[in-house]
Each structure stands twice: as C-alpha cells, then as structure tokens.
Amino acid sequence: MLPADASAPVFSWNLVGDFRDMWSYLSMVNAFRAGLVVSVVCAVVGWFMVLRRQTFAGHTLSVAAFPGASLATLAGFSLSLGYFGFCLAAALVIAALGRRGGAGGAEESAVTGTVQAFALACGYLFISLYKGLLEGPTALLFGDFLGITTQQVTLLAIVGALVLAVLAVIGRPLLLASVDPEVAAGRGVPVRLLSVLFLLLLGAATAEASQITGTLLVFALMVVPAATAGQLTARPGRSLLLSVLLGLTACWGGLIAAYYQPYPLGFFVTGFAFAGYVLAHLLRLLRELPGRAGAPGPIGGVA
Known about the structure:
Blueprint: H1 15-22, H2 26-51, H3 55-75, H4 79-97, H5 103-129, H6 135-142, H7 150-179, H8 181-186, H9 191-213, H10 219-222, H11 224-232, H12 236-260, H13 265-288
Helix pairs in contact: 2-7, 2-9, 2-12, 3-4, 3-5, 3-6, 3-9, 4-5, 4-9, 7-9, 11-12, 11-13, 12-13
C-alpha cells in the first residue's frame, strides 16, 4: 500500500533513493511490471494496427472494454475477465460481419461504428446501475495503478506472451497482407484468416492496455508510439523497435509522475506519449526543410 496522504512522496535528485522508496511498495513494483508487459504488447500490435489503418477498430475495442469492466464492477467478478471477455467478443463481431478492401472497407467501418455505439450504451447502463463509490468507474475510464495485483501481472504476462508468440508466427504474411492484400492473396496468403486473428490479438492487447491507462486512453499506448516511430523512420524493423521503446518510456514515465502527483495515471501516460509525437513530427519537418521533398514519409497512418 502507498501512504494515505497522496502528497507524501516527494521527488528528489537522489534517483537511487527515489526508486528504492518507490519500489518499496508492492503496488508500484506490480505497476512497473504490468507496464512493461502492456507497453511491449501494445507497441507491437499497435504498429500493425497503424500500418493496416485499423485504428477505428482499435478505438471501438477500447470502448468495448468499458462495458466489460463496468459490468465486472457491477456484478463483483474479476475485472480482467470483463476486459478480455468484452474486447474479444467485440473483435469477433467485427471480424464476422466486416470485410476489408474495396467497398468492404465501408462495410467494416459501419459494423465497427455499430459495435462501438452499442458498447458505449451498455457501459453507461452498467455505470448507472452501479451503487458503489465513484472512484471505481473513474479508475475504469482513466486508469489506476494502485489496484494492480501480482495475479493480475501474471495474467497480463501470460496473455502478452501468447499475443507476441502468435504475431511472431504470422508476422511476415501479416505484413504482406497489410501492405498489399491483393498481392498477398495471389501468393496464397490466407488474408481473411489473418485479418480475423489480428483482430483477436488487437482485442487482447486492448484489454491489457485498458487495465493500465483506463478504457478512454488506450490509444496512448496503442497508437501514439507507433505513429511517433513512423514519423522518425520508414524502416519497418527500426520503426517497430522504436515503437516499443517509446511506449515503454511513456508508460514508465507516467507511473513515476503519477506516484508523485495526485492525478490520473492515464493523463501522464497520454501526455508523455503525445509530447513524443509532437517532437518527432517537428524533427521530421526540420529534416525536410532543406528541400528533401523525396524523403520517405511515415509508415502507415492514423485512419
């Protein structure tokens, strides 16, 4: 447990002492462990999401985490079960009813928007029925690091390892299917199956991130690091690695700031990630000032 007084921890320039004090609390140790897992998983999955221009689907899945967590709070069962259950269910609905490519892109957007609207409505219903303290729903929306348990960290690590293992297997064909689905299909790549698998991986990663940043600020770890890396380099390998480093920096930086300041963790994580994106964008503009109009642009884009 942390001190009862939220203003008690005071930052000093003795970094060794500061970290020793911070990590003397099991909740902070668990928060940093969970942040490591979530940052890596979300950065990798988010990189593919940005490349595939499926950020709208990612946003919808983060919205689906809201009714899942609020129902778990209302019914009194595991929050993790609520997060993963609703996110994966929403991913399956989008995968089953939507299609990618050509006119199918509009169909998928319509299905995604429909799922998002219904998920929001369900979330508000469950919140209206909730009779507990307001801090519960607030933590669901904006994140809270105090409630992360060792069992939760273990679950996040297991799910994260499974997500990364699947991505390692399907990574190369998924990259080809993301860049040029027609060519991939012509080479015998199961584009449709890969799309369904990726949506499920996206749902699992979103459920993990929601437990750190809250459901409203998942994009801080899912989109911003990948978008920032794309501003700095067009090489896939470097961009993916940079996305992981940026996501981890934003998450751990946010945890440190939230430890010393009585403000939501999600705000700090999002603020650091956004600051990194702005700086990367300015650096890219500065590199292009001498007239390098032919310089490669960012990878993918935020649709």
